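Case study 2.
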Amino acid sequence: MITYKSAEEIELIRESSLLVGKALAEVAKIIRPGITPLELDRRAEEFIRDSNAIPAFKGYGDFPNTLCMSPNTQVVHGIPNDKPLIEGDIISIDCGALKNGFYGDHAYTFAVGNIDTETEKLLQVTKESLYVGIREFKLNNRVGDVGYAIQKYCEDYGYGVVRELVGHGLGRKMHEDPEMPNYGKRGRGKKFVEGMVVAIEPMINMGTHRIKQHKDGWTITTLDDKPSAHFEHDVAIIDGKPELLSTFAYIYEALGIESDEEDEFRQTTLIL
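Prediction:
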């Protein structure tokens, strides 16, 4: 059952989503070869709690940490550990926060130092596919329109689009209807209406789309042990169009990156 959000509720979701973006920026400030995922996890948890919010993932289904941290061949749901990151790694970091009764849920795949050009291309295309999908999240389109757009964009580059893991609605619960696959057929699935809020999150593999789950019950890796990338935004339909509630701008500020990629999806100016 889809829960439609009022303007006031959307602003509360935006507040939580921006907080997650700021937490990821705290991670971006210190991510480097030699640092451990657990150190990054502690920084994010401290920031979220200092912001009068609750880490959404910690304890969710018995997940033990604040961040899902998935390096290299891991797709999602990786558990932070004390193994130092090394030059050339990539790591997908997914973070959630609960504030004022509403969730934010947001992910970014970071390069650790310099990475090879093939992996850099995977990250670029995966992030581009996120915005390709967001453009289709508009009044009277359907779930399949978003999935089709992401799938075609990524498969045209020869990448594998994960089937078993999907985006989702977002609000008072972290996972609400509708499910938002990154594959599909145009014109299929639930219709988008005003006030819908979803998390769109392409999970794209350099090789096969097939995955395997590990014995810890959380860690998921690519079946062929090739790299995987993951980017996620929270988006609402406002005045019939997609409006970003989350942002990568705080991450970019920390990393010294200039970008206007989000401008077309934001009706109000983001104050950094």
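The longest helix spans residues 7-30.
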